[in-house]
Design brief:
By secondary structure, the chain is an alpha/beta fold. It is 50% helix and 14% strand. The strands form two sheets. It has a six-stranded parallel beta sheet, sandwiched between helices. A three-stranded parallel beta sheet has the order 1-2-3, sandwiched between helices. Strand 4, helix 6 and strand 5 form a beta-alpha-beta unit. Helix 1 runs parallel beside helix 3 and helix 9 packs across helix 12.
């Protein structure tokens, strides 16, 4: 859309507002070939031509400043949101739960794409330590992606096939049911500009474990409304999971605080108002 936006701006003399939720450099840990360089240059051009830029976290604001040299005041942070009615009428369904785990097993849930930057490989690597500390637990991996065969092979290599279940793609009503059945939800990303799935987990009332990167690092405060782990560190992921599995009081405390935070800060009414203000600011500058 960058070239079209620039053309419309010049043809009609109107401001452009760009929303950037990730960058090519961020997704690939740098620029490594000409195709990536072209995309990176196009992203820079779009932000340069924009009157105002919207990003979804302070992490992304810093990333755009570092990559593109944008003025600080030109970049506006407006977080993503979640539908607060997502779990209305959804309760723990034991028949549904038994399709994936035994009643005595605690469900550790991952929801998301099976790609490297989501860190699912590190969560799988954490499972031997989790199972050693809490045998009656099971990892449920909901989603699809290019790493599926590699991840299955790793599960077999670790000898934990009976403790890891790949569901494949789930429909929205299945995902909401799964959150309600889970005991811990884990989001172990190595790169995450925001992390909507964490909001969905927090809203469900399931305690969450997140990596200390990107937007996730801003959403969750350790032991207040969730648990953090060091990004890319299976040992740290396992420690946070085990602390929740063994401490129901902590689970209840962080879950309550997490749900309250999502309702207060990540509702679409507030986000729409903040976005509307930025568009007004852009119009006033022309």
């Amino acid at each position: 859309v960058a070239t079209s936006a620039k053309t419309l701006k010049q043809a009609f003399g109107i401001p452009v507002v760009a929303t950037i939720h990730a960058t090519e450099a961020g997704r690939n840990s740098g620029i490594h070939d000409e195709a990536q360089r072209y995309i990176n240059d196009t992203e820079w051009m779009l932000t340069y031509e924009s009157t105002e830029v919207i990003v979804n976290s302070n992490y992304m604001k810093n990333e755009l400043q570092r990559l593109f040299g944008l003025p600080y005041e030109k970049i506006n942070v407006v977080p993503n949101g979640v539908n607060l009615n997502l779990y209305n009428g959804v309760e723990r369904d034991y028949d549904f739960r038994r399709q994936y785990a035994a009643d005595n097993e605690k469900i550790i849930l991952y929801v998301g794409r099976l790609v490297y930057e989501k860190g699912i490989q590190n969560l799988i690597a954490a499972m031997p330590k989790v199972l050693n500390g809490y045998h009656d637990s099971k990892l449920i991996i909901a989603g699809k992606g290019g790493m599926i065969d590699e991840l299955r092979d790793e599960v077999r290599r670790l000898g934990i096939e009976n403790k890891v279940y790949f569901t494949g793609y789930l429909k929205l009503n299945q995902v909401t049911k799964m959150y309600k059945c889970a005991d811990v939800a884990v989001f172990p990303s190595t790169y995450e500009p925001f992390g909507v799935v964490a909001l969905e987990g927090m809203l469900s009332g399931t305690p969450v474990v997140v990596s200390d990167v990107g937007g996730l690092n801003e959403i969750v405060q350790h032991r207040e409304n969730g648990m953090k782990s060091y990004a890319g560190n299976p040992n740290s992921i396992a420690d946070s999971i085990l602390e929740l599995l063994y401490n129901p009081g902590l689970c209840a405390e962080v879950s309550r605080a997490a749900k309250a935070k999502v309702i207060a800060q990540y509702n679409w009414t507030k986000i729409a108002q903040d976005t509307h203000f930025i568009y007004q600011k852009a119009i006033c500058q022309t």
